[in-house]
Structure formats: C-alpha cells, structure tokens
Write a structure and sequence with these properties.
This protein is of the alpha+beta class and 181 residues long. It has a single domain, classed as minor pseudopilin epsh fold (3-Layer(bab) Sandwich). Helix content is 28%, strand content 31%. It is built from one helix and ten strands; from the N terminus they run H-E-E-E-E-E-E-E-E-E-E. The protein has a six-stranded antiparallel β-sheet, with helices on one face. Strands 4-8-9-10 form a four-stranded antiparallel β-sheet, covered by helices on one side.
C-alpha cells in the first residue's frame, strides 16, 4: 500500500479559519491603535501650539507684516470657543484686554487658525466655560486664563468621536502646559 502525503480537506479548512481569525484580530487592534494615536498626536500638537504663543510673547514676536515694529500690547494668546469645537486660534492681543477679539485672527497680523483632525473635537473646557483665552505677556511671561472670570487652571478635553476616547491638556497660571491623561 502506497501512503500519499498531503493535507486533508478538514485540515485545510481549520488552518484557513485560524489564519483568518488571527488576521481579523490584528486588523481590529491596528485600527483602534491608529485612532488612539491620532488623539494623542492632536493633544501633543495642542500643547506645542500653546507653547508657540508663549514663545511668541517671550521673543517679542512682531505682527502686521514684514518690516513691522508692532509688538502686541497684550502679548500673544490662544483662543478656544466651544461653538466652533473643531479649531483654536493663536492670536496677537493687540489691545491688551486679555481676550480674543475678532480682528485679532488676521493671518497678516500673525494669527494662526489650527483645525483639529477629522473625528477629534474640543469636548469641554474646565472650569466650565464656552469661551476661554490664554494670554502670555512678556517678559515673565505673565499667564492669564480668561473666560467669564480669571482662572488659575484650564483643562481642555479633546475627544475622538469615533473611538469615544478623551485626552486632557492642562494649562496653569504659570504657563505650564501638559497632557495629563
């Protein structure tokens, strides 16, 4: 009797099923990891952009076009508005009122509007406010967190709406900025 080598149909079906199951688990974890990475990168970029405004204030950055000698009287700041929770604005506080005014978003004056990635929003600002501004005034820089009143700390909660996960960026009255979770 001659013995034939090879796989039976059952062995092939079981092996294919195991490979398909392992591949499915890998792909599910891969896409979940990518969503968490997007949220983490967005939180880190927000920290970087807040520090950008702080550095503009420390460096006495000018605004108003090339050759300008205009240094904003109120320093530089970052504006958050929950009615437009897909962006935030770095602005020059030209009138030294510690809050963002519409004209201060002009890019020729140094303002920058930063759009959040798809599926990421600013979910909340704590203390509970709908609009908050962080301004940095040189030379220290003096940090002011302004909503309806002056605050000592601001928590900005970013949310990935697809993965339903959040990251919190904290800024305190000394200007220290970090991702806390």
């Amino acid at each position: 009797m001659v013995k034939k080598s090879g796989f039976t149909l059952i062995e092939l079906i079981v092996s294919t099923a195991v490979i398909a199951m392992v591949t499915g688990i890998f792909l599910a974890n891969y896409s979940s990891t990518n969503r968490r990475t997007d949220l983490t990168m967005t939180a880190q970029k927000l920290v970087t952009d807040i520090r950008l405004a702080q550095n503009y204030a420390l460096g006495l950055a000018r605004y108003g076009g090339s050759g300008s000698t205009n240094v904003p009287a109120g320093g530089w700041g970052v504006h958050f508005d929950l009615s437009n929770n897909k962006e935030y604005i770095v602005f020059a506080d030209d009138n030294n009122n510690k809050v963002y005014d519409g004209g201060e978003s002009n890019p020729s004056y140094g303002a920058q509007v930063f759009e959040l990635p798809e599926n990421v929003i600013i979910e909340s600002l704590t203390p509970s406010e709908s609009k908050v501004d962080i301004t940095f005034l040189p030379p220290d820089p003096i940090t002011t967190i302004t909503g309806s009143s002056i605050h000592k700390q601001l928590d900005i909660v970013l949310k990935d709406t697809k993965a339903n996960t959040t990251k919190t960026v904290r800024v305190n009255f000394l200007g220290l900025t970090e991702v806390v979770n």
